[in-house]
Design goal:
alpha/beta, TIM Barrel, three-stranded antiparallel sheet, 45% helix
Length: 338
């Protein structure tokens, strides 16, 4: 083969390969489950919504849950072309200041979002607040934020799910949603977070499923450590949750709610429930909560070592993160009808 022929052959092969990859992406089996951008918060950390949409489409996902950045008409057109749903991650109002929140609602409406996800706290309650007074101040500010949000949600007619983000106990979040009752305010039901607050895992799903606007579908694993227990997101087939029952409960109560995978690839989180400081913001919780959680951790201790990726080179960690998402999508299709 001459050099000129080789160049032509290589160019043709490159074009053919790109076409084949495109066709494969178009013909992949479609899942009924989407992907939350937080599935990639550990390593990839995508910023561009269109790029994230493309990646999820290539994996055969049904939709995305993501903050909206970039060319909104382009994102909407491509999502509609591929038949993918979009859920927008938005910030809550800062007290009664609603300008940024309303702008997020406008952008969500423009992108064709079917639901919104937000949270009152982006961190963890037991790590953030070191006095009961500080926690109660946060509760008061959150009440103002929700009160300010509801009229705008009703104006733009897009439902918002507040995530149980290791902040509200299941009963606290239900009480908040009932107090600010609106058909456009509900829960972004995270399947795994609330054991960190010593709630029973399935109780959380039973209590919040009737309010589910959107979801973070995941499975969890635990193991004891000296100050409490370690908590990890794991492959859907490897955790302690009864996912079939959890999915069934959401479908029963909120058949229109989408399931979005949140498979976070990271080192285990420490839940220091045996330390005095952990209890500062839980005046109404007692030893029963601790005893049953410790027993649960002992009974459901992971048979496998909890995942740890911080020691991996970046490229290898990226591969692990992507493989985790792919395997969870496959499991959901084969075992959860998703």
């Amino acid at each position: 083969m001459t050099r000129r022929s080789f160049v032509r052959y290589s160019a043709a092969a490159s074009v053919a390969g790109a076409m084949n990859r495109s066709l494969m992406a178009e013909s992949l089996p479609r899942h009924k489950m989407g992907i939350a951008t937080t599935s990639y918060m550990g390593v990839w950390r995508p910023k561009d919504t269109y790029e994230f949409l493309e990646r999820c489409h290539a994996l055969g996902a049904a939709g995305i849950q993501a903050a909206i950045h970039g060319d909104i008409p382009k994102i909407r057109a491509q999502a509609e072309r591929w038949g993918m749903y979009v859920e927008a991650m938005v910030p809550m109002p800062q007290g009664s200041e609603t300008a940024a929140f309303e702008q997020s609602l406008k952008e969500a409406q423009q992108v064709g979002a079917v639901a919104l996800r937000s949270a009152c706290l982006g961190t963890r309650r037991y790590e953030t607040f070191h006095s009961l007074e500080a926690w109660r101040q946060h509760v008061a500010e959150s009440e103002k934020s929700v009160s300010a949000a509801v009229p705008l949600l009703e104006k733009y007619k897009i439902p918002l799910g507040l995530e149980n983000h290791k902040d509200w106990t299941d009963d606290e979040l239900v009480a908040l949603l009932r107090k600010h009752s609106s058909e456009y305010l509900g829960s972004c039901l995270d399947f795994g977070n609330n054991i960190a607050l010593l709630d029973r895992p399935m109780d959380v799903i039973e209590k919040l499923a009737p309010y589910a606007v959107c979801t973070h579908l995941k499975n969890m694993a635990v193991e004891p450590y000296e100050d409490g227990f370690l908590l990890s997101e794991v492959l859907l087939g490897d955790g302690y949750l009864d996912l079939n029952r959890a999915v069934s409960l959401v479908r029963q109560h909120r058949p229109k709610a989408h399931f979005s995978l949140e498979m976070i690839t990271r080192d285990p989180l420490q839940v220091p429930c045996l330390n005095d400081g952990y209890w500062v913001t839980f005046p109404d919780r007692n030893g029963i909560y601790l005893a049953r959680t410790v027993k649960f951790v002992q009974t459901h201790k992971s048979a496998k070592p909890l995942p740890r990726v911080s020691q991996l080179p970046h490229d290898q960690a990226l591969k692990v993160e992507e493989q985790n998402v792919v395997e969870c999508l496959q499991y959901a299709r084969e075992h959860l009808d998703l």
